[in-house]
Amino acid sequence: MAVKNVEVEVPKTPIEEDIKAPGWFQQLSDVADYWKNELVALLLHQRKPSYAQTLMDKATTFDQWTAAAEMLDKIEGTIINLSHSWSWGADVIQLGHDKWKANPVSSDYDYRLVQDRLAQLKKIRESGDLMSMIYYLRTSITRNLGDCGNYKLFGVAHLGTKNLIDEYQEEVMTMLKTICDMEAPDQVDESFKYDCFMNMQKAFGRTALLLSGGGTFGLAHLGVLKALHEAKLLPKIVSGSSVGSLIAGILCVRTDEEIGQLFCRETYNLNTFERPGEGNLYLRLTRFLRHGVIYDGEVFRESVKENLKGVGNNNTRGDMTFLEAFNRTKRILNITVSSSTVYEMPRLLNYLTAPNVLIYSAICCSCAIPFVYRSAPLLMKDRSGKVTAWNPSGQVWIDGSVENDLPMARISELFGVNHFIVSQVNPHVVPFMQTSFSPSLISRLVGSTSSVLRSELQHRLGQLSDVGLSSSLTYRAQAILVQKYYGDVTIVPTMTISDYGRIVTNPTTDLFNRYLISGEQSTWPLIPLMRNHIQIEMCISECMYSLRTKKLAGMKQDEREGWKKIGQRLNGVEKDVIISQPDLSR
């Protein structure tokens, strides 16, 4: 059998410059990274990566990655049958992952249930009965029918899953759009259909994106946002703690048309820790001895305000409150802060719980890492627009990651969220996270060992508390250990040993670009899974928007204003009212 040599054009990729950390630390980290990779390859008996795998690893756009993944799916499905090689030579059987996708049978989900539900949906939609379609969807729609969102179903092929699952999702979305566009009978108006979609949204649930803390490595969150935005999978509810609050704030003060600015280096002031020329050991040591912190919080505050606006802009985004940002972009920003004392619970700030708090002040509080920045107060706008303290008692707050890195429970209570996408870059968490659909034996052992060690530490710290030997330090340690650091989908950008030496340093332009690419590359393999989880939810939201727009277009001016207010109330849009703190000094 003749095999033709096929020349495949390799997409050109930018040369990634190796970013050097100072001196001996860089040399040690390079040696450690090298031997770590060699040891893992030896233990797992890894083969040299194929040409398609190399293309995937070097891809700089999602289109490049997708093309390489499709190529690799075909290669990995090839089986060499040597059973008759003694007479006719080896048989080459081309299976490919496309064959696996086409076969609905799998023990990882209830394929019979999905098949039955798909057949029922098609039959009801083809009948053209609007009320039957509405009733069926309202009583049966769910995010994970028959466990079709199982991780294992997305770990066989590099791109996509069973065709049956895709067909079911497409049929649900087709029926939703049919209900939205169909001419309603006399007894059913657009308001009724809108109410039905609103009830479906409540029953189906909503998705939130949670951005963890992680110092300078948090720039990888930008790559995650870019990948989700380009795939049209970016949720409207976003939460951040520590550096995650900065990235979330920068996103949520911008409209959809302005999001493209987020991924350009020129948008940012990267002097977050110290101004140019101030980076010397003597100044840091003096500041630490005098104030107990290494860096000047005023430098960080200036950087945050400028980054919210965008470098060179004179807009008002730098002084926005949570409510103002929500009314401008319709994104729900959440920022976590921890109390500087052990007597106060951590807070989740958003347009409901802290409508008039200034976003930049919340970010400064959430990023106040102990011993790095001083704890900071929350600031708000009063009725006259004057900036005052949110808490008259002078309470100050610290890093939100300390006690509430991922505030899932509180967000679920406030916004009906039942699905969480987490971008995890915490340096003490990343090494223990499993980053593949099918973790290796070494990864499972590391995960199990870390879980046992964490449980043991929690137990010992609890014993200290029981005998009265606990302190604020042990309390903080317990708070860090008991937290949940993963979600329904967890994105973990690749972090090297040398990155640990840059966690609290000003990022360079090269480092910014490398972390941006790292965030994107870690997100691309999970896009098929996330699309499976949330595309129906987004289709429901689009239908609600379409119905509201259609209703407004056919109304008179006075009727239009009334319906607009109803739509705003149902979608959580609040009137921009300044609520002042009571004067407790009288």
UniProtKB/TrEMBL annotation:
Positions occupied by motif GXSXG: 240-244
List of catalytic residues: 242, 399
Family matches, as InterPro entries: Acyl_Trfase/lysoPLipase, NTE, PNPLA_dom, Triacylglycerol_lipase_N
Domain PNPLA: 209-412
Motif (GXGXXG): 213-218
PROSITE patterns the record matches: PNPLA
Keywords: Hydrolase, Lipid degradation, Lipid metabolism
Top-level taxon of origin: Eukaryota
Keyword Transferase: no
Gene Ontology MF: a single term: triacylglycerol lipase activity
GO terms of biological process kind: lipid catabolic process; triglyceride metabolic process
Protein name per its UniProtKB record: PNPLA domain-containing protein
Organism for this UniProt entry: Synchytrium microbalum
